[in-house]
């Protein structure tokens, strides 16, 4: 975990900067300067993603909101088993049939912002003044939790940014200009709020239409300190690059030029090499394209094209594509800004929420009776979390014991308790008298449904019944109150 920003360079002269973890990037430095001396930032990474709960009943949906912090390294955040990401709430998935059709979607947008501001209400005060927290290293710091990144798919980015879906949630580029590689003016929080307020008062500001805004007057980020929601939207490599630009557009264009059979033949002819996947049947027969498949194809795609196409820009000339006014293509112009502000993109993928849905939504739904399920899901998750926390605590106690035992063996038992007490301030945990026995057994039984007599007669295990009786009496103390176990 990191509690302060850093700058990393490849050389001693500090000429080449490296952007990797969030604490190596510029956002953290910029916000640190705005806070009082000694303040610690907890950069919040939120993600929200609507998901279906059941494959067969399409109307059962959940809309979880997840939270993690940039202080934790990407490597740890990546592992679902590390529990570095938590569920902070479910947003309502309401049909809003009480509203007339034209008003329904706007009511839905407003409901989203209302619920998000309820969930994040606590951050207004905490972000501004900081809260004293005990950190993982045992120190107490004044921590300012500040929203730094928001991971969501394109429609949800537009929803959070209060803009129409034909616009860019980061900048005010015109809908027709998204094909040109130009930088437009970035959206600004103060400015956007000002226009929304004017619109609310009925002043009809021309910028409202120009910036493609939606009439959401209380966006959830309005009062969040130091939060620029538009800069929070991180690139989504899976949907924008791998599934979007590469699969939906680039592969399609190239296949039209070269022909499907030729593309397949070239994939088949590709020499195999460690680290490269060999598509021995070509790619036209691949029915399920996963993120991994895209990346494997991207590695060799340039080689596939070599010699087959003219090297000039010919998509337009060959009338394969009329224009490049494609939102996903436009999003690439913001990548460098985003990397410099928030670090490398590998952990801002919308793949992570998709994986979390299994633990935090689908499993929870499965455990419910499928009626009024949200409350049951929350209860189930609270119990799971309690069990996990307890398990983690027990593992920690065991680790500590291991350490103490290790030291005791090294340095003698008498001096140890004083030393460890004075060094770490922790009282050593008493060691149990005997360590728990370990059993190694086969996973699969070679003989099934064997009677107990058969164990003694056929296998000669004559001590089995007395041993089992002793085991049960010792480990289930109340068993004597019912009856002495008898095996026949
Ligand atoms: Zn843009």
From TrEMBL:
Pfam families: Plavaka
Region annotation (Disordered) ranges: 407-431
InterPro entries: Plavaka
Record-given protein name: Uncharacterized protein
Biological source species: Sphagnurus paluster
């Amino acid at each position: 975990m990191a509690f302060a920003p850093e700058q990393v360079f490849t050389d001693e002269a500090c000429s080449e900067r490296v952007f990797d973890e969030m604490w190596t990037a510029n956002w953290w430095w910029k916000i640190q300067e705005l806070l009082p001396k000694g303040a610690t930032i907890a950069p919040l990474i939120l993600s929200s993603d609507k998901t279906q709960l059941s494959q067969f009943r399409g109307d059962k949906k959940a809309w979880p909101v997840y939270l993690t912090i940039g202080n934790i390294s990407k490597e740890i955040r990546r592992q679902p088993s590390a529990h570095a990401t938590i569920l902070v709430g479910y947003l309502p998935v309401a049909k809003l049939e009480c509203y007339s059709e034209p008003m329904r979607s706007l009511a839905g947008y407003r409901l989203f912002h209302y619920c998000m501001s309820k969930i994040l209400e606590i951050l207004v005060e905490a972000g501004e003044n900081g809260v004293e927290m005990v950190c993982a290293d045992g120190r107490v710091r004044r921590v300012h939790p500040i929203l730094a990144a928001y991971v969501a798919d394109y429609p949800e980015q537009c929803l959070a940014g209060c803009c129409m879906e034909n616009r860019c949630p980061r900048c005010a580029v015109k809908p027709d200009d998204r094909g040109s590689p130009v930088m437009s003016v970035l959206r600004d929080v103060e400015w956007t709020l000002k226009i929304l307020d004017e619109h609310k008062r009925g002043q009809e500001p021309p910028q409202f239409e120009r910036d493609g805004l939606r009439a959401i007057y209380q966006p959830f980020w309005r009062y969040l300190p130091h939060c620029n929601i538009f800069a929070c939207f991180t690139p989504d490599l899976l949907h924008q690059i791998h599934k979007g630009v590469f699969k939906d557009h680039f592969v399609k264009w190239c296949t039209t030029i070269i022909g499907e059979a030729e593309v397949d033949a070239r994939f088949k002819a590709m020499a195999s090499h460690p680290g490269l996947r060999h598509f021995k049947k070509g790619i036209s027969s691949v029915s399920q394209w996963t993120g991994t498949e895209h990346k494997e194809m991207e590695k060799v795609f340039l080689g596939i094209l070599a010699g087959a196409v003219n090297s000039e820009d010919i998509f337009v000339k060959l009338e394969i594509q009329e224009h490049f006014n494609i939102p996903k293509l436009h999003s690439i112009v913001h990548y460098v800004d985003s990397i410099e502000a928030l670090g490398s993109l590998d952990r801002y993928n919308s793949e992570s929420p998709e994986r979390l849905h299994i633990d935090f939504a689908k499993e929870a739904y499965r455990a419910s009776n499928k009626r009024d399920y949200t409350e049951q899901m929350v209860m189930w998750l609270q119990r799971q979390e309690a069990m996990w926390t307890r398990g983690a605590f027990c593992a920690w106690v065991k680790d500590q014991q291991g350490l103490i035992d290790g030291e005791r063996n090294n340095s003698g038992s008498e001096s140890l308790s004083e030393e460890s007490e004075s060094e770490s301030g922790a009282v050593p945990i008493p060691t149990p008298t005997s360590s728990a026995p370990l059993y190694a057994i086969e996973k699969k039984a070679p003989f099934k449904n064997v009677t107990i007599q058969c164990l003694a007669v056929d296998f000669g295990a004559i001590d089995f019944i007395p041993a089992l009786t002793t085991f049960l009496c010792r480990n289930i103390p109340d068993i004597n109150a019912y009856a002495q176990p008898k095996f026949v």
